[in-house]
């Protein structure tokens, strides 16, 4: 009997041990994204951890897979009065993610035979035309691929500050039409204007207002009942708008609803996380959702296919969608940013997965969310980079400053190029790109030493490096620029000139009584020099104070005081030529000592640098309208 009992107890112990081992194995089993409880717990940890450092921030998100809504959740408050966010009701501004809705409408009209993607966009515009700046016309597909060649522009018209400023879309686009800078297809240069132009194409082809067409043909069939392009919001949605907050005297103050009416098809949509889940499931199901088909399957698949790539080693554009490689998964989607909101949306056909997130805390939450989801559920085998021992021998050809071609070239906004460049320099057997080390991993291809970002350099037919592209950013190109466009050239000389002008002004104040005793010609030369210094100092002070005090409010346009101050560069340029006259006279007549003549010439050189600076960066004159 004892032996039988021992046997039974032994078997029980064996089973217990086996069950314990199985349970422990289950703890370490590969995470399954369809485990909703675990997914929510993981996402909670990500978002709540980041919200601790973002006071009064709000986040909304949705994740879909295999036609099912896995997770829909919001964090934070809809408003400071304490109303909690709900993913089915709370509206966020989704910025440029709106573009994908506009692209979907264009593809609807294409499959219906109402427009041709390869046709001249002017053939569909009734009230105004795009100038024939270059031989080849702009087509619909060029716009989808961001290769239409327009310069960028936003000052005073991308955002507006009041409903009184709202004008019809077609009037806005005709009024604020940017210049064509590049031949079509040559470069990828992101353009809000070009995409907004598609809104007018939709109106002119269908005879229906853009927002009404979207409501009837996309939002209604997909049951996206809380999504709209209307600005301001319709009354039934206003109470559910989420607001971003700024601190005023330590009091959270809601920021105004952003009006993006001049470029509504490119960034004016408001939506909820649940509505965007519907939109993602439609795309992942090749144009159909719950029995309602808004795109033919062939059209939906076409829309997800590559329509342009600047290089075979890069991800590209997919008829408006951006292709993104995350952990060796090829996704398609679109980011979006306004002044107050940041959004990201991606879809993965291989996993039948869609992820949407929007936040009032800027990009610091949204920019890393998708990568963290994939690192958790679809991890990539780590690749240890090998630094080539001989790279230093060929590193020099990459050196330079590369300017973003998404820039303005004909207005005062050109000045922003000084803040939007990438500096490339050799660093031993690696490259230093704007302070980050990159390792060569292929022909002209480099990967971040401590990260996953990749860049590729493009060479011309002579083998010279001319351009730079960033993997997963097919809508941007950076081009190697001449030295005089560098911030490293302009800013030191700008600072030196202001220092020289301050010395001139201080010297005059200290020795003004002495100067009164000088001969008339000398006094005139001195007074011109002092006036030149004061004029330049005054303008730079006004510019700095304006920028510092207004910040992002400059999007709404230049303040009156700055517009008046634009007279000063004109005066300073005239004074530079007058000062040159006196400088030549002083040297010719040998009126002063060599030292004083050199000093005067240095001031004259600084005056001419400033005149060139005003001219080159479109500050000279009223080049903002």
Account of the protein in words:
The chain has 17 helices and 21 strands. About 4% of the residues have low confidence.
Sketch the major β-sheet.
Answer: 8 strands, antiparallel, barrel
Please indicate the percent range of residues in DSSP E strands (runs of 2 or more): 15-25%
* Radius of gyration, whole Å: 30 Å
Biggest sheet strand order reads: 14-15-16-17-18-19-20-21
Q: Provide the low-confidence segments as ranges.
A: 4-27
DSSP helix fraction: 25-40%
Short synopsis of the structure:
The chain is of the alpha+beta class and 625 residues long.
Keywords:
625 residues, alpha+beta, eight-stranded antiparallel β-barrel, 39% helix, globular
What's the arrangement of secondary structure elements?
Elements: H1 2-27, H2 36-51, E1 59-65, E2 68-75, E3 92-93, H3 99-111, H4 140-144, H5 169-175, H6 192-206, H7 210-219, H8 235-238, E4 245-248, E5 251-254, H9 264-267, E6 270-271, H10 273-284, E7 288-289, E8 292-293, H11 297-303, E9 317-318, E10 321-326, E11 329-337, E12 342-348, E13 353-359, H12 363-377, E14 400-404, E15 421-427, E16 430-433, E17 436-442, E18 445-448, E19 454-459, E20 465-470, E21 478-480, H13 487-515, H14 520-550, H15 560-565, H16 567-589, H17 594-616
Antiparallel strand pairs: 1-2, 1-13, 3-6, 4-5, 7-8, 9-10, 10-11, 11-12, 12-13, 14-15, 14-21, 15-16, 16-17, 17-18, 18-19, 19-20, 20-21
Helix pairs in contact: 2-12, 3-6, 3-7, 13-14, 13-17, 14-16, 14-17, 16-17
